[in-house]
Amino acid sequence: MRTDETVLIETNRRVNEKYFKLTFLSPRLARGVKPGQFMQVKITPVFDPFLRRPFSYFRADGKRVEMLYEVLGRGTAILSQRAPGSSLKVMGPLGKPFNAKAKGKKRVLVAGGVGVPPLVFLAETSKADYLLIGTKSKAEVLPKRELAKVQAKILYSTNDGSYGTKGFVTVLLEQLIAKEGQENLYIQTCGPTVMMKAVMEAARRHGIPGEASMEETMACGVGTCLGCMIKTDKGWTTCCTEGPVFSFDRLECAHAGH
Amino acid sequence: MPGIDLSVTVKGLTFRNPITVASGTFGTTGEYSDFVDYEKLGAIITKTVTVKPRAGNPMPRIFETTGGMLNAIGLQNKGIEDFIEHKIPYFAKIKTPLIANIAGENEGDFSLLTRMLHKHKNVVKAIELNLSCPNVEKGGTHGMKKKARMKDAVRAARQETDLPLFAKLSPELGDVLEIAGDVLEAGADGLSLINTLKGMAIDIEKRRSRLANITGGLSGPAIKPIALRYVYEVKKNYKVPVIAAGGIMTASDALEFIIAGADMVAVGTANFVNPRATLDILEGLRAYGVRHRLARIADLRGSFSHL
Predict the structure, then answer these.
(1) Do residues B43 and B98 lie in contact, with contact meaning Cβ atoms separated by under 8 Å?
(2) Where do the domains of chain B lie, and which CATH numbers do they carry?
């Protein structure tokens, strides 16, 4: 059940050049969570920033919640300065999660930026075959301890070639498609819009099914404000309650010409 | 401890307390049911319903601003038939008066919507006429600016029902005091003050509006002083029930409106920030009642005094 809790920050520190990790204890927010679901976080005790911010779950083990986030704007900049012991209001778990299996297929998770935390969570809690992560450079690669529980084979791509394969994550994806055969794969992706568009375009060309976790500016997170609409096969629908994870075949942006 | 009597009676209709929700901020059925016991609210005001389904405006539709947000949803809703088929049965099970908010492009729409809702008087206890949506081409502030059309809309609704009718106004329509007089003369029983105020925000990198609709309705604490002023001025001039809305985030905000004369207070954008805002405000009203030894909230209403 969705709940709204006041929690105390346990830890909140920088992990590498890209990410911060924040943890808090809350059995109610950490119970029954599935990868791909998200939280609405009130960053400060006052109304500035005014709206909450959506964050995906990085880990939830029934007691503790972990968030892995990038400083992308004013809200996340303020969050990165919040000290352990101070409080946050957190609503969750919200939205529809990723599928934990794909019958008869090998699951390939394709992540970048804000899409890394939910897909690492998915790779830790289900039997995926590959986790592809695209970043700018080696400085943004997650420390080994954060990936220790991932069973899937992890492949990195960096834009500058300083770690893993040089180029965009779609280069890795194309190599994998050639190796495994398109008919044997199921893709699950989350990350920057440009990356997901490229992933969905590759999936469309090869006829590979899958799902993408979409991002839109949100106010309420529970389907009332109608601010976060996504164009689907059934018209506009709320990203927060009908998503954020959508099957490729439901997404208009996954089809040719978008 | 007996505590303060929070009940409010308006046109023969009794609400258990003055807390309601502003149209479009509380979903269409049970979106907030995990957070709020709907039967603790004074009334529930629905999202605007129109005759035909409306897809709403293109994306992006919302943008956060200092002390509030802009929205240009564009009255997205599934239309009156879906409302009667799916929403009314949901609220029939909830023992809280439902106030249906309607909008139309002409008096024919208002007439039809009111007639259809009147048949569900067992659930729909009052109707709020949305005359002031800033985000639609026809109807709303755009079409209703002509005074005659606004009065026609109210008259059309009045002819179809004896349910209390609240006209929702905004300064976007013109002189609120004058318009209040007009809509009351045309048959409205009370007023809802105020709707969002038209505003905009620009992305300086792209040199484009933050909203696909270019402009949107501003809501939140940024508009509270303006809303408060209108509630105060209108109540000073007209002895009619007023549902106040505009940046009510806390019990203290709600109390300001009640002291200014509001009969009911509608919590709006606050629901997006705090899903329990309505009940938190209700608890705050009770605590204030104890602290000020008030027997009834009615004794506080309009108790504003000049220095």
Answers:
(1) yes
(2) 8-299 (3.20.20.70)
